């Protein structure tokens, strides 16, 4: 069965609920970049919103927007990936726990701090009684959610799925990660970073919802042809996995127009991609997206989004090319894009998108 | 009593995150639940926490809440009589 990505909506560093990043992306100028918020009143009434944390509001707005774009009122399944759930409410609850000596704890913060709040709030709003699940697997939360939807759609168990990736970065959480030296530096220069002279990681918040379905529509971005997830592969195993996925889809590496990689600017993260490029994608243009959307547990969802949007648009904007010289040479309309992500070199994923 | 009612209205707006509302928007005699502000059971829990934290009142019997939370005025009267801080 064919599976299609019908519509995508996001709230991030870039202009919310928009594809403006394709033409004029916001260039991050600090390690801590805040998301741009849309007008939530367009999606949620103030009485509904008063108990929701920022992340739940974002998730609802992107979910409702993507369903509207795809002309779908009720998905068969709601599947979300979130590394830490609603951090804002978790912090509020834990701070109150300390401040009030473990007494007089606010119920709203407690309820909203659980990871599955996001999927359940979407279901409550849509009155959707279908399959509802949340994956919390750090940086592969989204990939796991997508894989779940992919398998269920492949098996014909569902016809449509709303798949989201939702994670937020709060100032306190950013500070804690800074103390752990997670953000390599506060300096950010794209060109230095490309030349490997700088090791930088910018933080991002992620709220991205997409609708998958078994039917092709006018709004379809691309086909989600295949995907694979694997644990702690060596470089040879990664190469084998790439070859396998291509082979079973009657493709060769030459058919891949571009490979989207989760390059972040942090050498500890990027070395895997450099090695993979040298071994498997020597003649394939490399695209990146974390320079625009930042690093977060849900960041890999932007990789799929970027690939899908390029296939829909029939072109790849120059700023997505990791190596500018590849951008100059690239003239054709992309037909096949591979998305490769890894998290701490433990969990890897390959996603094949086709026009 | 007027001062306590005003204070209570501000606390309710803050605790229940009633965005865009001011104390003047809350009728002190209007029901808090169902009609009036249209609060629900989660809000009732938040109000119980508010009474304990800010006024040192611990509600022992859940049924008491029905009476106490009838309106802001009734709530203020109860707080005025039973407060320990």
What characteristic shape of chain A results from the CA principal axes? Answer: globular
CATH homologous superfamily identity of the largest domain in chain A = Thiolase/Chalcone synthase
Judging by the overall fold, what is the CATH architecture of the largest domain in chain A? Answer: 3-Layer(aba) Sandwich
* Structural classification of chain B: mainly alpha
Assembly type: heterodimer
What is the CATH level 1 assignment of the largest domain in chain A?
Answer: Alpha Beta
Write down the secondary-structure element order of chain A: EHHEHHHEHEHHEEHEHEHHHEE
CA-based gyration radius of chain B: 12 Å
Between the first and last Cα atoms of chain B, what is the distance in angstroms?
A: 15 Å
Overall average pLDDT of chain B: 89
Question: How many runs of DSSP E, i.e. beta strands of chain B?
Answer: 0
Order of strands, widest sheet of chain A: 3-2-4-5-1-6-10-9-7-8
How would a textbook summarize the main sheet of chain B? none
Query: Number of helix segments of chain B?
Result: 4
Q: What is the 3D form of chain B?
A: globular
What is the strand content of chain B? under 5%
If you had to describe this structure to a student in words, what would you say it looks like?
The complex is a heterodimer of chains A (355) and B (85). Chain A is α/β, with parallel strands linked by helices and 355 residues long. Helices cover 36% and strands 19% of the residues of chain A. Chain A has 13 helices and 10 strands. Chain A has helices at residues 46-49, 54-69, 87-99, 107-112, 117-126, 141-154, 171-179, 190-194, 235-247, 267-280, 290-293, 300-313, 324-329, and strands spanning 4-11, 77-81, 131-135, 160-167, 206-213, 222-231, 258-261, 286-288, 336-343, 347-354. A 10-stranded mixed sheet of chain A has the order 3-2-4-5-1-6-10-9-7-8, with helices on both faces. In chain A, helix 10 links the parallel strand 7 (258-261) and strand 8. Chain B is 55% helix and 0% strand. Chain B contains 4 helices and no strands. Chain B is globular and about 30 Å long. The mean pLDDT of chain B is 89. Chain B is mainly α and 85 residues long. The longest helix of chain B has 15 residues, at 41-55. The interface between A and B is medium-sized, with 13 and 13 residues.
